[in-house]
Specification:
Blueprint: H1 3-31, E1 37-45, E2 56-60, H2 71-82, E3 88-91, H3 106-113, E4 121-123, H4 127-130, H5 135-144, E5 147-149, E6 153-159, E7 162-168, H6 179-183, E8 192-195, H7 202-205, E9 212-215, E10 224-225, E11 229-230, E12 243-247, E13 252-256, E14 274-282
Parallel strand pairs: 1-14, 2-3, 3-4, 4-5, 7-8, 8-9, 9-13
Antiparallel strand pairs: 2-14, 6-7, 10-11, 12-13
Length: about 280
């Protein structure tokens, strides 16, 4: 190989690497964060009442509105969720990325108000909701949007004279979670779903009569690579990153959503945004 051919190959290789890098950057910043996936899951348990066969729950989480996630994107998300015709909608925290700097307006309320669920809309605090003195501001928005806050308390959903429970704890990082208070007065025979922003809280939840924990917070790692997986997840999302986990201690299932928005860096790579549609099915024993 002469010198000219050698230089041409070197330059060509460098240009290829630069091109691939630029393409990956563009894809991770501008394309994948908009590739919303719908995650369909069946929740099967003998504790699910017959009346709740086919009952649908939509979970969305970690919108981080304001950090490269706009109201227009939120409106499209609302349309997608409503098309699922859910019985219950739950939001598991981190509505706004930086509450202290966000320009609050009626459009956010209008978008969230548009979410429809026959048996109610429920939410819990995430760390970003408490952060930046956002606690009351976020609650005010969610109140006006028709969401009921589950903060160390629970609600009983009744359908054809049978019942299930939705419980929610305060944020683990910046709040004061109290699971004993949350579950106080619940019949342990009732099928119970816990909303907890941070997924690693599941190891504490297994000590209680909880059947399902729904969480977010991890963003699924937000950026993942083949054979390596995620590079980083925040505190309390270091063990359980995405998907479904089963605990033998109390037969509890943990579902961790990758969430909707991004934070810290406006990238998603091999980790598409998602919301989940859970369908309850009674296990026949």
């Amino acid at each position: 190989m002469n010198r000219r051919s050698f230089l041409k190959k070197i330059i060509g290789g460098l240009l290829t690497v630069v091109g691939l890098g630029a393409g990956a950057y563009y894809y991770a910043r501008d394309i994948e964060p908009r590739l919303l996936q719908l995650d369909y899951q069946d929740i099967i348990s003998p504790k699910i009442p017959t009346a709740f066969e086919g009952f649908k729950i939509v979970q969305f989480t970690d919108t981080h509105v304001g950090f490269h996630y706009s109201i227009d994107q939120l409106k499209k998300l609302v349309t997608e969720i409503n098309e699922q015709d859910p019985h219950v909608i739950v939001f598991t925290g981190d509505l706004i990325d930086e509450p202290q700097t966000y320009a609050w307006d009626h459009m956010l309320i209008e978008a969230l108000q548009s979410l429809k669920a026959l048996y109610g809309k429920y939410w819990i605090y995430g760390n970003h909701d408490h952060g930046g003195y956002g606690t009351e501001s976020v609650k005010n928005i969610m109140d006006q949007s028709g969401f009921k806050l589950l903060k160390n308390n629970h609600t009983v959903i009744e359908h054809h004279n049978e019942s299930i429970v939705f419980a929610g704890i305060d944020d683990v990082i910046l709040g004061k979670p109290d699971l004993s208070q949350t579950l106080d007065g619940i019949d342990p025979q009732l099928f119970t779903i816990l909303l907890a922003h941070e997924p690693d809280f599941a190891e504490s939840a297994t000590k209680f009569p909880i059947d399902i924990q729904l969480s977010g917070h991890s963003h699924g790692g937000q950026v993942r690579f083949p054979f390596i997986g995620h590079l980083y997840t925040p505190a309390y999302a270091e063990k359980y990153i995405q998907g479904n986990y089963k605990f033998s201690r109390n037969n509890m299932n943990l579902y961790v959503s990758r969430g909707i928005g991004t934070t810290r860096l406006p990238f998603r790579f091999l980790c598409k945004p998602e919301f989940s549609i859970f369908t309850l099915k009674k296990e026949v024993t």
